[in-house]
Amino acid sequence: MLNNYYILKELANHLDKELSYFKISGCFSQEKDQLVISFSKDGNTKYLLFSCIRNNSSLLLRDNYSKAKQNTATLFQSLKEISVSKIFIDISDRLIYFKTENNLNLICSFASGKENFFITDNNIILESFKENSALKGTSLNNHFLFQPATIPESGTVKEYFKNKYIRFGKSYFKEISFRLKITLETVLNDTLKSNVDTEFLILLDRFCTPEFIIYTNQNDMIMSLTPLEYYENSYKKIQFENIIDLISEFYKRKQKQKFLTNTKNKKLTELESKLRKIDSKINNLTVRYNESLGSVKFMDYGNSILEHLNDIFPGQEFLEVYSGDSKTKIRLNTSASPSMNAQKYYQKYKRQKESISLLKTKIDKLKKEKQTISAEINKFNSMSDLKEIKKISKSLIKDKNPDETSKFRKFILNEDYQVWVGKDSKSNDLLTVKYTAPNDLWFHIRGTSGSHTVLKTGNKNANIDKHIIETAASICAYYSKARNAGTVPVAFCLKKFIKKRKGFKEGSVVMEREKVIFVKPKLPEGFDDIS
């Protein structure tokens, strides 16, 4: 932000030498909060670019400027052909005045929160670049209260600096503190006050023969009109020939820094989002893994039911069994026979036991992925090379085209089989036409609408277990309008027998050689939805 009074004063002096008695040849804007004024004299044209962005103002003088053919607003036509006679800074605030031959004042305001361009006559605002309807006709003094500073007789050095020397700014405050070997919280006394005043007078004397310096490091950048001992050892020092070159380079570097920061932040946001999702998956899988470790209890439940067949009566909800002083309650399905209840627990034991190895593999894989992403986050946090950042920016553009298969719900049944489900008509078509192999099994609910569902077999000669087919059919039924029904028919066939004929609307196909299976709509217990 261009807000140091003495930098602005030096800029006003330079502009006075460069633009005095130039005529205004045009005013226009083609970017939000940026005003461009062109000045001409003897066939020579110069462009003044004033960005009055809140807390990020700038004023740059250029020998050329490319004016856009479209989306350009022509402004302040009354200023055309008016000559500028004097350019100076207000003695009280950060206002640069362009005095014209007809005694108008054109003012660039750099005051914090009041960044704007005004045309005034006898201190009355005739027009303004921003908020024109609200400001037009009002007094400039109503917006800039030029009050003298109150100088404290006692207190801290910080309070003294802020009240008497506020125009100098923080970088010069640090320099004076460094030279006097004090801190901002040092309590003021008469001797110290005299030493502080002397140091600031030395600075003012140096400003009369300014040097044009940028001090920069990885995270910070300072403009100065004189060498500063405070920054000499820890910052890189760059010198320029004049104030225009200094300010131009400062803002060029600021733009690069902004690009770098924004790109890094986008990438970090993306990585941190991935990290949160991985943490959530690890937590969920760990809970299921721990539950699966206790799957032996389901085998015990099945054994206990078979041991007490004669003790179970129709409609009984629980079987209570004792081992020493401990009692276990085993829930029973009242509509099933005791032996069927036992078989249910045996099947549950088998499924959870089989999933332990798969869950452990997935957890380990996710933990490795988490380590990789954490390392990338650390890398980007410390990155400062612009070329590397540009590479990241290009990769971000590519990443805007995500993996198409992310549009499907995916269920891993075991190491051999996955079920993929479309989410809408468009993804149904994409799944069926592009992401289903000829020997994958294709499912659809009978008699109502639902998602295309595919059992990824991976092996055209696979002899698929009936339980796997039933599970895929149940998932298909769950993602249909029959989700809340009892038992429903689901048709299935090899994908090579699915035909999509010309003129069919999105999501519509014809099945050939289909079979029908009756299942209950449900998601499989103990299986992971990784969509």
Which helices and strands appear, and what pairs or packs with what?
Blueprint: H1 5-19, E1 23-31, E2 34-41, E3 44-51, E4 58-62, E5 73-74, E6 84-89, E7 95-100, E8 105-109, E9 116-121, E10 124-128, H2 132-135, H3 157-164, H4 170-180, H5 190-207, E11 212-216, E12 221-224, H6 229-232, E13 236-240, H7 243-293, H8 296-307, E14 318-323, E15 326-331, H9 338-382, H10 386-399, E16 409-412, E17 418-421, H11 425-434, E18 441-445, E19 453-456, H12 466-478, E20 488-494, E21 498-499, E22 510-511, E23 515-519, E24 528-529
Antiparallel strand pairs: 1-2, 1-5, 2-3, 3-4, 6-7, 7-8, 8-9, 9-10, 11-12, 11-13, 14-15, 16-17, 16-24, 17-19, 18-19, 18-20, 20-23, 21-22
Helix pairs in contact: 7-9, 7-10, 8-9
Provide a brief overview of the structure.
This protein has 531 residues and is α+β, with helices and mostly antiparallel strands. The chain has helices spanning 5-19, 132-135, 157-164, 170-180, 190-207, 229-232, 243-293, 296-307, 338-382, 386-399, 425-434, 466-478, and strands spanning 23-31, 34-41, 44-51, 58-62, 73-74, 84-89, 95-100, 105-109, 116-121, 124-128, 212-216, 221-224, 236-240, 318-323, 326-331, 409-412, 418-421, 441-445, 453-456, 488-494, 498-499, 510-511, 515-519, 528-529. It is built from twelve helices and 24 strands.
Description:
39% of the residues lie in helices and 23% in strands. The chain has 12 helices and 24 strands. The chain has helices at 5-19, 132-135, 157-164, 170-180, 190-207, 229-232, 243-293, 296-307, 338-382, 386-399, 425-434, 466-478, and strands spanning 23-31, 34-41, 44-51, 58-62, 73-74, 84-89, 95-100, 105-109, 116-121, 124-128, 212-216, 221-224, 236-240, 318-323, 326-331, 409-412, 418-421, 441-445, 453-456, 488-494, 498-499, 510-511, 515-519, 528-529. A 7-stranded antiparallel β-sheet has the order 23-20-18-19-17-16-24. A 5-stranded antiparallel β-sheet has the order 4-3-2-1-5. Strands 6-7-8-9-10 form a 5-stranded antiparallel β-sheet.
